[in-house]
Amino acid sequence: MQAPEAASAADLDCADFSNQAEAQENLLPGDPYGLDGDGDGIACEDNPCPCSSGSPESNGGGQAEPAPAPPPPYRLDKGAARHAARVLAKRFAHRNPAVTSAAVAVCRRLGERRVDCLAVDHGSTSTTKTTCRLRIAVRARNRHPSPRLASSQCETKSTLFLSAVRAKQAMLDAANPIAGRGAAFYQTRINALEFEGVAWWKQMGQAGIETCTLELLAELLPSNQVRVETGTPLCRERSPVPA
After folding, report:
1. Is there a single domain that holds both residue 142 and residue 170?
2. Could you tell me if 112 and 183 lie in one domain?
3. Maximum CA extent, the chain
4. Helices (H) and strands (E) in the chain — how many of each?
5. Segment holding 156, helix H or strand E
6. pLDDT value for 32
7. Could you say which of 69, 97, 124 is where a domain stops?
8. Domain presence at residue 205
9. 91-135 pLDDT, tens digit each
10. How far apart are CA 74 and CA 82, in angstroms?
């Protein structure tokens, strides 16, 4: 492009050009017009754009703004994972009639987007106690925690226990109609729910005084009632004392 006709070859300056690209076209070797004052090869840097490819944007000659850094990869928050696991554990308790309460015990990070939690659900009745142990895997989906029940194991134990006092009373009640209230008695525990006992007494038989024994078994049922089984009384005549 030729210089403006109104300007002579000896007195061109940046004001003679409407933009930087036009001045750049007139930047000759040796810069006879003084268009590149700092010698960086770019003419009239303060002129407005359009600009030449070698010229910075029209921001006062400064450097272009760098592109923003990409956001860091999403990391699943451990507290949020724990809360999600607690919600799932409570949902499990609502669906399982054997348990009524839920608690998250411990959570462990397995990766940037994976946290595993262990939860325990409890429940009890008048005769049983149930414990469910849950493993809950929490993953990040769409930058939100998503829990999944990985495994569950439930155990129900009986809380029934037959006391010695209760067993004795039940066996005496069963033995008294047979032996009478004067019978002696002893018992032995078999396990948490059972006792065995023996009652013995003396009575007058056809040939004289007899000694009788009666074996009994007391058992606590799931209904929390005591059942007593009685054997057959065994009576023997007392041997006479030698003269």
Report:
1. no
2. no
3. 169
4. 3, 9
5. strand 144-158
6. 84
7. 69
8. yes
9. 999 999 999 999 999 999 999 999 999 999 999 988 899 999 999
10. 17
